[in-house]
TrEMBL record:
Name of protein: Uncharacterized protein
Phylogenetic classification of the source organism: Bacteria, Pseudomonadati, Bacteroidota, Sphingobacteriia, Sphingobacteriales
Superkingdom of the organism of origin: Bacteria
Amino acid sequence: MKTYKITVLALIFIANLTNCTSKGKPNKQGEILSAAALKALAIHQSMNGKLVTVDGYASFCGAFSSVTAGKKNKMGIYADGFCEGDKLIEAEIDFADNQTPLTGEEERNYAEVDKSFKNSTIKFMTDDYQEVANGKLKFSGTIDYDGSNYHLTNVTIHK
């Protein structure tokens, strides 16, 4: 009987811990940049460090794409579909590591891939905690120049 009570108390304690996460406030979205404005980024660096938003399809293109769970991985954002149309920009997107936090803010703004590893099967957890299938989404982040290239960092995902 004593073991039973201890087990029940332990389960109640664990259940309370898992309920200690909270939802964060929505993140700000930056100015929406057109394809022409994104192409101009290669010419001048006036947008370095600015918060911007890009509408497009997140895609891995090429035969040797891979991701590391729990890390940021660069994905191309394309204008017209998965690897179709102009490549607008690359974005550093967090990938799920399948670990549930016990406390703090619930995870959001990440991608999840399944074993088939197809662009069409990637799922995203948006900034407002919606799980959505990969499609045309808004990717908001800070423009970061790394030499002659630029990409989005601190990316938030919006429907």
